[in-house]
From TrEMBL:
Keyword Metal-binding annotated: no
Entry GO terms, CC: cytoplasm
One of the record's GO molecular function terms: protein N-terminal-serine acetyltransferase activity
InterPro entries: Acyl_CoA_acyltransferase, GNAT_dom, Ribosomal_N-acetyltransferase
Record keywords: Transferase
PANTHER family per record: ACETYLTRANSFERASE (PTHR43441:SF3), RIBOSOMAL-PROTEIN-SERINE ACETYLTRANSFERASE (PTHR43441)
SUPFAM superfamilies noted in UniProt: Acyl-CoA N-acyltransferases (Nat)
Gene3D superfamilies in the record: 3.40.630.30
Residues annotated as domain N-acetyltransferase: 28-183
Protein species of origin: Euzebya pacifica
Name used for this protein in its record: GCN5-related N-acetyltransferase
Amino acid sequence: MTWLESRPPERIAGDGVVLQRAHADHIDGLVEAVQESLPELQRWMPWAIDDYGPAEAREWQQGCDDQWPAGGGFAYVILEDDRIVGTVGLINRLEPGWLEIGYWVRTPSTGKRLARRATAALIEATRTHLPEVEGVAIHHAVGNDASRSVPIGLDFVYVGESEPTPDRPFQQVTEAVWRLPLL
Ligand SMILES: CC(C)(COP(=O)(O)OP(=O)(O)OC[C@H]1O[C@@H](n2cnc3c(N)ncnc32)[C@H](O)[C@@H]1OP(=O)(O)O)[C@@H](O)C(=O)NCCC(=O)NCCS
């Protein structure tokens, strides 16, 4: 992870959204948002188990806290009017120079381009604060049409499909890969 030495801001203001570094204070709001979104999340996110609760949210937040100083990833809650409506983050698991972006949005809040607006704000912050980043990528399950609209709407370039491989143990299905060069 040594290629990435810069760190992004803990708070990023976007178009009608604020991204705030995931913090222990967000646990209750996260659990509520996940529980409300389980049917949709479970179609695509293996971590969205039936009885997702505070222990799972705490474990996720603790992992994010550990990764931030190490440059392993930067996770944010998405806030709309101070309410948690999802998460978005940069993940350092591609080749040096490239970061992957992941996101999910609370089901009753979908359809308002929150994912697109949150991702756009994160990309802008990446351009400004992480000068060693050459570009960002979005990987989504083939068939996840709602997710696909995010890279399309932000002018990512379609790279192709990628099959699960041993160097991506977290990937379980065939993914569509999109990239946006920043330099
Ligand atoms: C994918 C997800 C983040 C989209 O969030 P969102 O804030 O509603 O996204 P946006 O409003 O920016 O875009 C939604 C787009 O998908 C389209 N869409 C929504 N549901 C759709 C569906 N079932 N099939 C096709 N398109 C769909 C909308 O029409 C919209 O398209 P447009 O921007 O061209 O008008 C959200 O649905 C979600 O969290 N899903 C579950 C978790 C997930 O899939 N995360 C991504 C993993 S890669």
